[in-house]
Design a protein that fits this description.
The complex is a heterodimer. In chain A, about 75% of the residues lie in helices and about 0% in strands. In chain A, helix 3 packs parallel to helix 6, helix 4 packs across helix 6 and helix 8 packs antiparallel against helix 11. Chain A is globular. Chain A starts with 6 loop residues before the first helix and ends in a 16-residue tail after the last helix. By secondary structure, chain B is an all-alpha fold. Chain B has one domain: MetI-like (MetI-like fold), CATH 1.10.3720.10. In chain B, about 75% of the residues lie in helices and about 0% in strands. Chain B has 13 helices and no strands. In chain B, helix 8 packs antiparallel against helix 9 and helix 10 packs antiparallel against helix 13. Chain B is globular, with a radius of gyration of 23 Å. Classes of the chains: A mainly alpha, B mainly alpha. At the A-B interface, helix 1, helix 3, helix 4, helix 5 and helix 6 of A face helix 1, helix 3, helix 4, helix 5 and helix 7 of B. Chain B: It holds the Pfam family BPD_transp_1. Chain B: Belongs to the binding-protein-dependent transport system permease family. CysTW subfamily. Chain B: It is a multi-pass membrane protein.
Amino acid sequence: MDNKPKKWSYIYLVFVFILMYAPIFYLIFYSFNKGDYMNGFDGFSLRHYQDMFADTRLMEILVNTFIVALLSSVLATLIGTFGALGIYNTKHRTTKNLLLSLNNVLMVSPDVIVGASFLIFFTMIGMSLGFGSVVLSHIAFSIPIVVLMVLPRLNEMNPALIDAARDLGASNYQVLSRVVLPYAWPGILAGFFMAITYSLDDFAVTFFVTGNGFSTLSVEIYSRARQGIDLSINALSALMFLLSLLLVIVYYFISNYSVKSSKKKRGGAAGMVVHQ
Amino acid sequence: MSNKRTFSYTVPYILWLVLFVVAPVVLLIVQSFGNIYGHFTLDNYATYFSSGTYLRMTFNSVFFAFIVTVITLLISYPMAYIMSRLKNAQFWLLLVILPTWVNLLLKAYAFIGLFSKTGTVNNFLSFIGIGPHQIMFTDTSFMIVAAYIEIPFMIMPIFNSLVELDRSLINAARDLGATPWQTLTKVIIPMSMSGVKAGIQAVFIPTLSLFMITRLIGGNRVITLGTAIEEHFLVTQNWGMGSTIGVILIIAMAATMFFTRDRKKKGGRRRG
């Protein structure tokens, strides 16, 4: 392009970024407030952080949230990776397209629909709501993103690699563990990270299937926010922001690694979208 | 790999497809034809279409989602355009994506502080002499927060379509004597329509179904389809009616996707 962006465009860019980040930094800023409200900064204090760590209920929920995230993303990655292999190995064109469309149903459905329909499903099969139903739901809504992360890697793979391994006498298991899975590994890892973030971020689906006894962080923040301002939530948000930053950086490196070899360098950022 | 082998390790995936993709949707549709005693009936649909309340609520929900989509589009298009012309475009895109990784509830919670009666926004309004106002629990506050949350999802697809745009077309337009305005309206905007459509899908459908924002910011009123579904399932326990509204939401979603369909559409999780 011949003309460089003009000055006003930089001003606009900065303005929009300020809009996007202001609420987040506003939350973090007031987590250091000595006072109890998000208006008027009374002085620096770490007491809301102390409150947060002393809040055993909140800490318990934090641990629960991470257990659910890790458990569901490991299982979703396993099921999704083999699902992607299944779709990859499906030669029949119509079946393949049908599988792909079914795979994406949960991705395009609004969360309330997913949550409500899972609630009907769990009630129908007589499953009690709580830890189990939350983990199952998180596995369920994370599987499609794993498939979408792994499948492109498989499609990129040169089929001659598999034929060569076969010719050299590799068994099905060896082809899978020595050739296919190592090749798809960056996609599998990316899918795993997306599954973790989906699980950590989810509110709506969890809210529907969680029942009374069990709670995750999002659900807890929701019920506390309905009571009004509580600055230990601000302290929590500061920690969560740092965690997101860390996850984004890790994910960015994984996905950059995974696109390094591919011809079209679309940039790692494009796929890392979490829509709540 | 033999067919038998393929079958064995995909069993969990197939089970997932049947139990968590097909079955819940079927159950939701079946439920929408049931009354609170579980008998088959068309009453829910009759109530939905005959009662003004449901239709008005649906209209409001579509109207709010429309306004939110327009606001985000107006803010996002110039933003995506500027970003696409910068050198470190991928870095800026990362900065756009980062807020989407922050928990939605935390972002909504920030606005409770910002918009409260003695909050920062009202302090500022008082300072410049036009406040304070009641901002929380209004339709406006709901739309502002929804737009805030959806902006990154509008910027990203537009940005991607603008980055993919062939630069020589713009140069050609200039060479042929087009003014910058003509280049923008006759070349750049039409060529980035696929991104705009994807952005509209990514914003409009979730905004129809948002319910936590309406509860927290919009003042606990049932003003979107999402809130109505949540209300029927978790508050009044009328699952039949809730499912009926769910079916309406699925139809609205399908209609939106039909009107904004594009041949090179990309998948992405659309949650809300």
